[in-house]
């Protein structure tokens, strides 16, 4: 019969706790440096609710952003471009 392994709780002192806090702040600071997110069509249409045919017509007429080709049969849109489109549409309200 094997002897059970004894696990000890880590020694948490003020220094290590403060270091963890700083590390958490570094993570939140790095959020701005994350790469662009890519959105698939269903995600785009949840943010900008038009029909699929209207969306693709707008892409063809260069009214809406063009997609990024991911593979031979897969495309996605850059999130910041979709958010800019939404901001532009909102700014045109009277």
Question: Could you walk me through the main structural features you see in this protein, from its secondary elements to its overall organization?
Answer:
The protein is mainly α and 94 residues long. It has a domain at 38-91. 49% of the residues lie in helices and 12% in strands. It contains 4 helices and 3 strands. Strand 2 and strand 3 form a beta hairpin.
Give a brief outline of the structure.
The chain has 94 residues and is mainly α. It has 4 helices and 3 strands.
Task: Quickly give the structural class.
Answer: mainly alpha
Q: What is the distance, rounded to the nearest whole angstrom, between the alpha carbons of the first and last residues?
A: 78 Å
Radius of gyration: 23 Å
Strand content: 5-15%
Order of helices and strands: HEHHEEH
Q: Main sheet: which strands, in order across? A: 1-3-2
The helicity comes to 40-55%
Largest β-sheet summary: 3 strands, antiparallel
Low-confidence stretches: none
**Overall number of strands:** 3
**Count of helix runs:** 4
Q: What would the average pLDDT be, to the nearest integer? A: 80
Shape: globular
Biased composition (Basic and acidic residues): 16-26
Protein name: AlpA family transcriptional regulator
Region (Disordered): 1-32
InterPro entries: AlpA
């Amino acid at each position: 019969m094997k002897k059970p392994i004894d696990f000890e709780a880590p020694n948490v002192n003020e220094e290590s706790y403060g270091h963890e806090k700083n590390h958490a702040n570094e993570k939140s600071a790095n959020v701005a440096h994350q790469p662009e997110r890519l959105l698939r069509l269903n995600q785009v249409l949840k943010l900008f609710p038009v029909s699929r045919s209207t969306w693709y017509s707008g892409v063809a007429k260069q009214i809406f952003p063009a997609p990024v080709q991911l593979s031979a049969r897969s495309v996605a849109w850059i999130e910041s471009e979709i958010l800019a489109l939404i901001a532009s549409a909102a700014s045109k309200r009277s």
